[in-house]
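As noted in the main text, all predictions were made from sequence alone. Below is one such record, for Tetraprenyl-beta-curcumene synthase family protein.
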Amino acid sequence: MNVPSNPITLMAKVYRDVFPVVHHELAMWKERAYHIPNDELHSQAIASIEHKTFHCEGGGILALLANEHREECIRFIVAYQTISDYLDNLCDRSTSLDPNDFAALHESMLMALSPEVEGGGNYYRYRDDQDDGGYLDELVETCQDVLKKTKHYDKIAPVLHELACYYCDLQIHKHVNLEEREPRLKNWFEAHKENLPEMSWFEFSACAGSTLGIFCLVAYAFHDELHDEDIAKIRQGYFPYVQGLHILLDYFIDQEEDRIGGDLNFCSYYENEQAILDRMKHFVEEAEKSIGDLPHAKFHRLISRGLLGIYLSDQKVSAQKNMHKMARRIVKYGGLTSRFFYWNGKMYRKKTAQ
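Prediction:
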């Protein structure tokens, strides 16, 4: 199977070869979640699948890089993203705001990337709600089982764990009590600042909050050959700029929702709307540069430009006049390709809402 290199062939493969498998996997996990004994864990597991399906749909597109191993790769992506979304719900709705609890929960995300390790202990040990009937363990084991089938796990493992540690650290710091969040995130940024291009602390947080780099590496690990220099290029291609663009767009469309809910939103730290536009443009341009040397560069460019169209076509944006106006400007930064994905996203959402 050839890796698509233009928007039309990409979306044809996505609708035919990716989304049906993603939806099948999600349906299986949703059915499994219905059998979780604890009421709170049950409700959060179901909610994370029902309200965040598009995370798995988007991530699943990267499985096209795995060629004939596409379905196995999607199994990993859906299971890993489901862990991420489930834990995010648990942390968002935590009453304890205990960083030890958040760290213990996210041990599962590191364990999922460690197929050589069996039994991760009790991830719920710092909270009252504990009996998930083995749900989280099964998600972890599914990820481990898929990684065992890849040809180059040992080569990609250090980068997988690096990117996962960024993600897990972010989830811990951003969910503690309000007074501690910003100082913790700023201190964390200072510890990594010298290894990053010039950016703000909240932009670094955004770069850490995406799982796209992990999914990309796992897809390539199914190939017969994967050289160390390619792994380095993939890591540098997706982190920081593609991942940062991904999460900044996610926060951009959630600004009003987060303002009402009193939740942390990284876009709220920009001085004004022009600063948002300028930095979005910067991330778009740097993402383009960073993926230029990757294998299948045209495909990765579609992913980067597709992020603009997919996120900014969300109905949350069109419901707010000023945000809609800004979104139309940001979409143009990705050229005709982003506009194609923008209108495609609008049509897909309209169709699935019926």
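The longest helix spans residues 7-33. The radius of gyration is 19 Å. These features were considered when defining construct boundaries for the mutagenesis experiments described in Section 2.9.
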